[in-house]
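I can't quite decide. Please look over this sequence plus structure tokens:

:::
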Amino acid sequence: MLLVIDVGNTNIVFAVHDGQDWLGTWRVATTANRTSDEYAATLIVLMERQNIPVHKISRAIIGTVVPPVLYQLLTLCRVWFSVDPIVASSSLDWGFEIQTDNPQEVGVDRLLNGMAAHQLYGGPLVVVDLGTATTFDIIDKDGNYCGGVISPGLTLSLEALHSAAARLPRIGFGRPQSVIGKETIGAMKSGIYWGYIGLIEGIIERIRKEHSVSEITVIGTGGLARLLAEGTSIFKEINAELTLEGLRLLANRNSSGNKK
């Protein structure tokens, strides 16, 4: 069985795949000062509740955009599961070209999303990841990573609006009933929600023109993707598991990460 660990800025996702299906997926908060023993105490209990024996884990892969937690997760895999995990990086065999000036600077989550999306949907395509940052990643018809766009995430934008304007309250995110707000909170929600819809549609249109394609598939992922998809028809599909699937595909292309 393959243990997959996807480290994001907000959550760490642990998942186990048996070669046919995902047997379990669990999320814990990303905390830099958590020890490997604390990760083990949580993960092993969750696995046992779904009848997944620890000794059945024979391979592991880690993808992280938070370097401070990597050492403890490497120790978790080596001490508690007796596997030396693969760590996703641009130096591995991805099966496609990373066509950027500095491939090592590209976040591995973006490469993983592109890899999985091309496998599932074909290309050319754009993956829009609505997480801490909102990223657009462009994949050509052959699966090569062509580059991307990075803009502030929705949560960051809401916080910035509140922090920079003393009379504007801190608000949650949601789809407003109308575009024109009749009071302050309604106007703020409208500006954020429809502003991001405009940002997504506008950037996709510019990518189409710059990439010289009339049609390009758009796949959404990230925690807020389904809510934003209610306001636009630009997404072909929302897939919350793209990064996990990318890690599984990358592990299968690379031979390390096996039982010691």
